[in-house]
Amino acid sequence: MSDHLTVLVVDDDVLIAMTCADMVTELGYRAIEANSGAQALDIIAQEPKIDLLITDYSMPSMDGVQLVKAAREAVPGLKVIVATGYADLPPDSGLEVPRISKPYTLEDLESAITKIIGEALA
């Protein structure tokens, strides 16, 4: 894969964020972890190149939909994958993004990343 791809992993559960970041690294990408929407936005403001955001949907203070909308204001066109235990995002979210169901395997994550990055390169 490409070590030039930088993936921001956001989950309020530190263990889940760390596990996902480890998976991202195992797939050959650079991973940055954040444990809140606010922390993720701080990283986006400071990090010159975030290629992909993988965020939990259900987080306190700022949910995944709110984070994606704010992140895309800072980085228009940012590629996003929402990780959730819910069957679907709320219909009023106004967000059409790929979703990966928790719990997910390394293969599930690889497939989701490959699909979204492949679409970006097409």
TrEMBL record:
<dbReference type="InterPro" id="IPR001789">
    <property type="entry name" value="Sig_transdc_resp-reg_receiver"/>
</dbReference>
<keyword id="KW-0805">Transcription regulation</keyword>
<feature type="modified residue" description="4-aspartylphosphate">
    <location>
        <position position="56"/>
    </location>
</feature>
<feature type="domain" description="Response regulatory">
    <location>
        <begin position="6"/>
        <end position="117"/>
    </location>
</feature>
<keyword id="KW-0804">Transcription</keyword>
<dbReference type="Pfam" id="PF00072">
    <property type="entry name" value="Response_reg"/>
</dbReference>
<dbReference type="InterPro" id="IPR011006">
    <property type="entry name" value="CheY-like_superfamily"/>
</dbReference>
<dbReference type="InterPro" id="IPR050595">
    <property type="entry name" value="Bact_response_regulator"/>
</dbReference>
<keyword id="KW-0597">Phosphoprotein</keyword>
<protein>
    <submittedName>
        <fullName>Response regulator</fullName>
    </submittedName>
</protein>
